[in-house]
């Protein structure tokens, strides 16, 4: 339920930034490793939404999310979870994060 709530909230850019800033990424990465297929879908969906923001994409990488997302792509029985994990990875490595990492944010 927590992953589903974060997925729904992460649709808003402001919420997405707040979720990333306030520690919401590590629990989603942990939930991506769950045994439950539906949890895979909601965690991957939330991480996908969060990855739209370059700062969140960098946080996902820093928190070890790449390994979890690749694991979902390779092993989840849920086609939807595999698809959303692949989308999250695509957004994370589309080049925006590299520029963000070099300049940082005004608060960093």
From TrEMBL:
Ranges of the ARM repeats in the UniProt entry: 23-65
Xref: InterPro entries: ARM-like, ARM-type_fold, Armadillo
Name listed for the protein in its UniProt record: Protein ARABIDILLO 1
PROSITE patterns found in the cross-reference section: ARM_REPEAT (PS50176)
SMART domains: ARM
Superkingdom field: Eukaryota
Keywords from the named record: Repeat
A Pfam family it matches: Arm
